[in-house]
Amino acid sequence: MGVGIDVEHLNAWYGSNHTLQDINLNIPANHATALIGPSGCGKSTFVRCLNRMHETNPIARATGVVKMGDVDIYKDASPVVIRRRVGMVFQRPNPFPTMSIYDNVASGLKLNGFSNRAILDETVERSLKAAALWEEVKDDLKKKSGASLSGGQQQRMCIARALAVDPEVLLMDEPASALDPVSTSKIEDLIFQLKSQYTIVIVTHNMQQAARVAENTGFFLNGKMVEFSSTHTIFTNPRDKRTEDYITGRFG
Amino acid sequence: MNHLVTGLAVLSTVLVIVPLVAILVYLVYKGASSLNMDFFTHIPAPVGESGGGMANSMLGSGIILLLASSMGIPVGIAAGVYLAEYGRGRMLAMSVRFTADVLNGIPSIVMGIAAYSLIVMRQLHFSAFSGGVALAIMMVPTITRTTEEMLMTVPHAIREAALGLGVPKWRTVISVSLRTASPGIITGCMLAFARVAGETAPLLFTAFGNQFWSFKLNEPIAALPLQIYVYAISPYDEWHRLAWAGSLVLILMIMVSVTLVRIYAGRNTLKGAS
User: Fold this and answer.
1) One digit per residue, pLDDT tens: chain B, 274 residues?
2) Nearest to A148 among B176, B180, B272 (CB)
3) Nearest 10 degrees: CA dihedral of A229, A230, A234, A236?
4) Which residues, including other chains, have CB under 8 Å from residue B45's CB and lie 6 or more apart?
5) Which of A90, A97, A108 is the closest to B166 by Cβ?
6) Which of A71, A107, A125, B149 is the most core-located residue (most Cβ within 10 A)?
7) Distance from CA of B167 to the nearest CA of A (A)
8) Cβ–Cβ of A107/B180 closer than 8 Å?
9) How are beta strands A169-173 and A60-68 bridged, if at all?
10) Cα gap A43→A46, rounded to integer Å
11) ipTM for the whole complex
12) Contact between chains at A107 and B164 (C-beta distance less than 8 A)
């Protein structure tokens, strides 16, 4: 089951560049939350702060409180533990090129020292089914490299890989921006199904996509969160003038 | 213009291949006739007697190279990993990189002198071990720099994928970065191996050479390049022929070991793997 995330006074920097400024936000469990905004507004930085990927860059740092349920992810746990609870899907599919499809999906477990064959088999099948890829790849799971799949299949494999470690939250950083329309709609269908079991945060450039998959939407601009409310409100009756300008296409 | 460039490329390729093939053909022509069972099973015959072989030199070369590889390859790869994965922008990394480049250009006889003063002078006897150390030092810079270069070609996105799954950094480095870069790293190791396999100068006053069988690491040991050197500068025709045969065997040994490693490393490649 998913878990809610409370963000309080989150600030983030790249070097001297203050990329996130005092973000406060409640992300409800088992819902999809979309983050929209122009390029460079800080929405990717924001999701990377939710699983402590932000700090893998040596010049980056963050302050503030991010609570997953009762756990303060910056105080109570190591980044490695947090990243197992918070899965991430990146903008471009990033399969491990030397690994088979099976090993790609099982990698999160295998690389953490888990080796029970039967459970691995079952997890790989369950994850690929959840990512709607099982039927397409079940015959060459161990024969083909993960890199040999098409872009859309690779991205669904990356989703399966993230699901295999059984996270509670799934972060998706523009997961469909490098894909064709058919693959994109498959990914969107998937998000729709997955949110019954996971808390989903999706960064997107595509406002129709936000409207299709997310119950709540946040609008980011220049490192600040301008507005956060139900997707319906954001798109039909935004409070802030800047949100209205953005969604009506006046800038960005 | 197209024809000109293509022509130049073909010409250069021919220029590269001709000396290689010529050397091989000449070695076979001069050396093959002296290759017989004795050559592979006997130790050198005393001066004045005919026959004899280089069996102890082949074994000696094998031992020295095994020693050198088992020291040089792990150290070289580990240093390359530090440069690429941990030391970005650090003073230590910059000085290691600089040292490796300088070390790469140092004449091999200097490596021999280094091993001589570090090990032989202390133990007061020549040894297979000191020869192995001299060759290992020669292998390290090539392996370190290729490992670094190859790790740098691994896309950052792949490392992020592993880190994002909660895989610790050390495991990401070993199972993702190194594994993805392994074909190039293996090539680097093979290049370093092939380069030191034929080295004579560093062994002159470390392994020293031996006319008899020796299996001990702390005693002087025979080596093919040393034996070739001794035979080639001798005044006897038969020894000259044996030197040719030894050269041929040395090159074949290098070719066979490089090929075996390539086959072994390539056997697990998956369909569509990049």
Assistant:
1) 899 999 999 999 999 999 989 999 999 999 888 888 888 888 888 877 777 888 999 999 999 999 999 999 999 999 999 999 998 888 999 999 999 999 988 999 998 999 999 988 888 889 999 999 999 999 999 999 999 999 999 999 999 999 999 999 999 999 999 999 998 999 999 999 999 999 999 999 888 888 888 888 888 898 999 999 999 999 988 889 999 999 999 999 898 988 888 888 877 666 555 4
2) B272
3) -140
4) B51, B52
5) A108
6) A107
7) 6
8) no
9) unpaired
10) 5
11) 0.90
12) no
Which residue is closest to A160 within chain B, CA to CA? Answer: B165
Closest partner residue to A161 (CB to CB) among B157, B165, B271 is B165
Look up the pTM and report it: 0.86
For B83, the domain range is 54-265
Q: Say which amino acid occupies A109.
A: L
Say what the alpha-carbon torsion angle A241, A242, A247, A252 is, to the nearest 10 degrees.
150
Q: Both tokens of residue A44?
A: 């990717």
Q: Which residue has the tokens 């070695």?
A: B27
Name every chain A residue with its beta carbon within 8 A of the beta carbon of B162.
Answer: 96, 107, 111
Q: CATH number of the domain at A23, please.
A: 3.40.50.300
Domain count across chain B: 1
> Is B29 a member of any domain?
no
Q: What distances in angstroms separate CA B33 from CA B21, B48, B193, B242, B245, one per listed residue?
A: 19, 20, 28, 9, 8
Residue B129 within any structural domain of the chain: yes
* Amino acid symbol at B50: S
Q: Does the residue B12 lie in any domain?
A: no
Pairing of strands A224-230, A216-221: antiparallel
Out of A90, A100, A147, the one facing B161 most closely (by C-beta) is A90
User: Does any domain span residue B70?
Assistant: yes
Query: Which structural domain, as residue segments, surrounds residue A215?
Result: 5-97+167-247
Whether A56 and A225 have beta carbons less than 8 Å apart is answered as no
Q: Which of B269, B270, B271 to mutate: most A Cβ within 10 Å?
A: B270
- Closest-CA distance, A132 to chain B, in angstroms, reads 20
Going along B176-238, which residue ranges are E strands?
none
CA distance A144 to B269: 9
Q: Would the CB atoms of A161 and B167 count as touching at under 8 Å?
A: no
CATH number, domain containing residue B165: 1.10.3720.10
CA distance A153 to A168: 23
